[in-house]
Design goal:
0% strand, 207 residues, globular, mainly alpha
Length: 207
Amino acid sequence: MISVHAMLGMALVALGLVLTPGPNMMYLVSRSVTQGRRAGLVSLLGVAAGFFVYLLAAVAGIATLFSLVPVVYQAVKLAGAGYLAWLAWQALRPGGDSPFAPRPLPPDPPRRLFTMGLVTNLLNPKIAVLYVSVLPQFVDPDRGAVPVQSLLLGLVQITVAVSVNALIALTAGSLSAFLRARPGWLRAQRGVMGVVLAGCAVAVATD
């Protein structure tokens, strides 16, 4: 139904997005570092549920809705850009935070971990842009039903994103300890993350 080229292209886009620091990575890392790997994986289940919400919306034609009512898309895009800019400021400001720096966060029960993972992903502008603007570019109407192609491409993205995020959640504690022992590296990580987030905010707002 979908070509190998489309599948590989979608997988590469998904890999690039999941490796770029953003809300999902920050939440998963912070929970894994402060509450352990199990909490990180429960949070990841919520993130995965958010992916499926976007996927179902894409299959139902959310891109068409945004095309017919551009002001809705503009509102979503600008809100997402503002959120990214706020995250960038949190990282770059004097005394800013790094997701790998432990915080005195109270332990949350599994239901709250799942819910926060879901909400964090639903408010993630990178994922909204992916499903609204990028995924349709890999759909070829000549190859069959568009909803089925959208579903398959979305499953490719979800598989890549969940696999990489699971690896991040499982290794966050070890990476945090490594960075804490090297304050210069921790500051560099925070600076790089802030610059990347700021760049993403500008790109989303001006695209």
